[in-house]
Amino acid sequence: MLKPLSQEREAQLPPDLVQALREGRALALVGAGLSRALGFPSWPELLRELAVHILQDLGDSHEARERLLAKAIGVPEWVGETLKHHSADAYVRTLRRIFADYSPPQFSIAHSLLAALPFRGYLTTNYDHLIEDYVRILDSAVPFVATPFQDENPSAFFREESRFVLKIHGCAARDAGRLVLASSEYFNLARDARYERILAYLFQRYSIVTLGFGMADRDLTRFIEERRHLYGNRCPTIYAIIPETETTTWEKETYRSAYNVVVMPVSPNNGFEELSSMLLSLYCMVHTSDSHSVAADVENLLHFRYSDAPFALTGPVATLPEDAQAARRLLSVFRDPVPLARFASWSATAGLKLTTAQYRLLGQLSPDETITVRQLARPVPQDMATVGTWVRGAIENLSSEMTAFDKQTVSAYAETLLCLLGCLESARSLLDHANGVSLFRLIAQYFRQTGRWVDWLAACERLLVLTVEFVEMPLEIRSRLDEEVSLEVVWVLLWQRKYAEAEGYMNTKPALKETEKGRTYANRIRYRKAADVGEIDRLLAEVETIKDKRIDDFSLLGQLAARRALLEPGKRIDTLGKAKASFMDAHSRAVKEGPLREIGVQSYYLACVHADLGEFDEARKYIAEVRRIDGALLRRVPGLAWQWVAEYRVELSEKGREAPTTASLRRRAIESLTALGIQTATDVVERGYY
Question: What pLDDT does 505 receive?
């Protein structure tokens, strides 16, 4: 069992390093020592092995081979230069063969802790792929791997959200022919302008932790001298983890004062076990956890995370602590990344006694400090109910207007909400209470306005099956909730232009037609089914008789008049004028009464009717209103889709069908409506836009 450093040794670890790790301002520079412990060769050993293979292939004399092999220890770069010059093809071919022969080694606690520490990225002189393998499994994402001399811009990794691995001397898996082994390759690398720019960027911005190097290692001294050449000691500190047998007090002081390098000595005993202990202590300190209390759990969690890796431990994996198992089940309920601090706080209310250091290893931690679990556990019903209660508390006080801020809040739980609404226990914890109907309406507004109609329709249909089980909910409230969910199904079908399905659904639930929304939806179905002027006139007369007309009623009058104008070209202008007047009434009522999204809807209709009347300046004024409300204020996806339809109608009326901009806008409008699940998008933009 791995133990952290003693409390006395931990107290000597640099606080500035801990803070740099917390803030994402630290990189690791990894040398051959870390890979060598797992069976990979050191630089001289690799050159010696390379020489053995090549010289055997070339059939050189025994004495010549022995002389060259002897030089591999003292001047390995010259041996590399000689071999490459003598037979470049054999050199590359043999390198590929050597690295292909190395099978994945055993699990390394040092590599797993190195991946667990929040380094922004890793620099390495190693040619193997161990670092990226360990980071990939812990992050559940492939890190961005780069070399200084790759064809594409190597600085691209600075813009990547995922962590990066910069392989300073090349990558055997990518291009064995461009590994830095020979003296000329070292010379060329040191004078490569791209390499110098990369180092300059890193030296300026990041503290660097070096490990896997000896104090006399030429790669490390070159790196430190390169930094001194560029900046002196006026840049973030280098923290060099060095075998304690390879340094003296005077050397430490020289490095600190002249190079801004802090030497952190470790014992080489027991295969450098103290290096892993130091990494474990750093990990716990970064997460403000007592290392001696959580060390065993951290090690078990690391073993668990790597249990399916090709280099997994042989034998049974240590059992996770009970609280860690419960937290992992709860985390598995979430379908969205959840802020680590919030999840830890929520879990504490559920009685779980874990630290951030333990939570961090339950799943993938992103740079924005959100966590997701990839190795899904099987939640129990109580877990679903618990998460339902948590999410309900996070969103229940938002505005029903669903502003851009409200959408951002709900979007953090969107996939989770769809999951919760499909499970009895979690659906009850979300909605089985006095404010359940209001909360459902709020969730509905999110999925309506983000245009996720297909997903929302499926969620509502599942929920209708579950609401009958809400036995603890008062019957009156349960009936209201069932009514709201049913009307939501009709709403989605109507906006997807599936009128026959909407009518059939309402016929299975006659009580819906007795509600205010239900009557409005029934009229819209009649409007869409009207095939001639007579049917439109009958519906117009019925809507006109409504005493207390609402926004929907005025809007429907406008739509009916606009539709009539299309059917009677001879009276087109007069009838479109009546349509405009009705849309103006609806717009004025929306401005006075709200909600804000309704102003956007009526602005769309006004833009279309002005376009059909040839009043293009007025049409563009209302398009700008749609863009302001649905784009800048609400970020309402359907509103922006209809905006493209309105822009197409204006362009078509003003410039004609042959104009390039008309064709482009038509394509954009059709694509936007199709993305909403509207299967008749082409017909809508040409004839059914009212």
Answer: 93
Q: Which of 7, 8, 92 lies closest to 50, judged by CA?
A: 92
What is the tens place of the pLDDT at every residue in 613-624?
A: 999 999 999 999
Residue type, 126: N
* Candidate from 172-181, 191-200, 522-531 with smallest mean pLDDT: 172-181
- The pTM assigned to this predicted structure is 0.76
Displacement of CA 301 from its chain's centroid (Å): 23
Per-residue DSSP letter, 433 = S
Question: pLDDT (tens digit, 9 = 90+) per residue, 566-603?
Answer: 888 888 899 999 999 999 999 999 999 888 999 999 99
Q: What whole-number distance in Å separates Cα of residue 436 and Cα of residue 81?
A: 75
In this model, does residue 155 exceed pLDDT 60?
no
Helices (H) and strands (E) in the chain, counts: 35, 10
In the structure encoding, which two tokens stand for residue 585, read together?
């009434």
Task: Work out whether the CA dihedral 614, 617, 621, 624 comes out positive or negative.
Answer: positive
Task: Give the strand pairing for 121-124 and 238-243.
Answer: unpaired
> Do 639 and 448 form a contact (C-beta atoms < 8 A)?
no
Of 570, 575, 604, 578, residue with least CA distance to 690: 604
Hey, which residues does 30 pair with through a beta bridge?
124, 211
Cα-to-chain-centroid distance, residue 349 = 27
Q: At 151, phi and psi to the nearest 5? A: -70, -40
Maximum Cα interatomic distance, the chain, rounded to a whole number of Å: 111
Q: In Å, how far are 460, 494, 622, 638 from 488, measured between CA atoms?
A: 7, 10, 28, 16
HSE, side-chain direction, 13 A CA sphere, residue 607: 27
What DSSP state is assigned to residue 164? E
How far, in Å, CA of 359 to CA of 367, rounded? Answer: 15
Contact of 264 with 278, CB cutoff 8 Å? yes
Which CATH number describes the domain made up of 530-686?
A: 1.25.40.10
Q: What is the pLDDT of residue 177?
A: 67
Q: Report the topology of domain 7-39+108-286.
A: Rossmann fold (3.40.50)
Q: Which one-letter amino acid corresponds to residue 361? A: L
Integer CA distances (angstroms), 445 to 414, 577, 666, in order: 12, 32, 28
Residue 206: which of 188, 181, 231 has the closest Cα? 231
Contact 211, 275 (CB under 8 A): yes
Q: Which residue has the tokens 């507004």?
A: 445
- Closest CA relative to residue 645, chosen from 677, 585, 690: 690
In sequence order, what are the residues at sequence separation of 6 or more whose Cβ sits closer than 8 angstroms to the Cβ of residue 146? 154, 156, 157, 164, 165, 166, 167
Can you tell me the distance from the alpha carbon of 425 to that of 422, in angstroms, rounded to the nearest whole number?
Answer: 9
Report the distance separating Cα 47 and Cα 43, nearest Å.
6
Beta strands in 323-393 (DSSP E): 338-339, 364-365, 370-372
Q: What is the DSSP string of 95-126?
A: HHHHHHT-------HHHHHHHHS--SEEEE--
Residue 25 DSSP SS3: coil
